[in-house]
Design goal:
five-stranded antiparallel sheet, 7 helices, 16 strands, single chain, Immunoglobulin-like, alpha+beta, C8orf32 fold, globular
Length: 357
Amino acid sequence: MIQNFFLQFGRTFVLLLTLASLFIFVSCTPNTNKRSFTFIYNVELEPSNGKKIELWLPVPQSNEVQKISKLNIKCEDLSYEIKDEQKHNNKYVYIYSNDGISKNTMVTMTFNVERYEHQNINCPAVDPSKYLGASALVPTGKIFNSIIQENKLNNNDLKGLYDFVLSGMHYGKPESKDNQYYKEPWLSSKDTYGLKKVSRDKVVELYKKAKATDGSYTFGNGNSLYACDIGVGNCTDYHSYFISLSRTMEIPARFHMGFSIPDEKEGKVEGYHCWADYYVEGGGWYPVDISEADKDPEKIDYFFGNIFYNRVEMIVGRDFKLEGYEEETINLFIYPLLEIDDIKSDSFKKSFSYKNL
């Protein structure tokens, strides 16, 4: 009897020890569906020689898929105010001095991010009807109606729309014939692109013309008409095209802009990234990242309805109006906007970096 007692006790002890070990393992295993990091947004301003200087930067906000904390803005002797962008409920920082600056001045915005991988989400504060109309470079109707009819797209098959944009676009930003994006594997001398069936030489020609005339009919401006005509561009072009088609089919769709964070523990961030989401009654907002799908075909299915945690969102929407900024509307707002004596200026250097927490 005593032997049976110790045998039963031993079994119970082993079971409890196993359960305790399992609990410790589960409790200590990190949540692989989120990422925490510090983001550093640097702008080095050149002297304005006594002229008024004004700077605008987007400020990220917490929402359903990210938590922003410990926002800190350092701008030496300049003053600053955090303001509300009214159309899409974004925030931005306005940095200024009426007396200007006499030396190089560093502006640094840092903040912590906890970002979550996500699928469709509910955003109770967002009115979907605000995201049905056209914007300056994201029109609706007309040619998009024709594209929808000719390709039998419909608002009950958003995967079909996603696949259509993916198949019709080609990732590339060729600024010249010796640019990396002009060559294989990005673009080919044997292929033509877009509805207009243009060559890669034509893509470069359109870029140079746009630069010379301050035009927008080239890659990187989120111009839907350019995207469907030419079919070569970056993330802004893919998702603007998707949004024009979605809204033409009376599906609300939004444009998101931020930064992709590399896999390493710390380092530089080379530039912005953007993506989109569309609204379904009863299901909420479903994300898509078509340009990333194009660059990584193994994740084509994933990026329809899923967004990874390796990013931070800075701003939502298009056609922004910022208090004090001389241009009536701003097409894209992710990089610094600078004015000296109310004239747009590029007298600054920008850099972005991150470090895991």
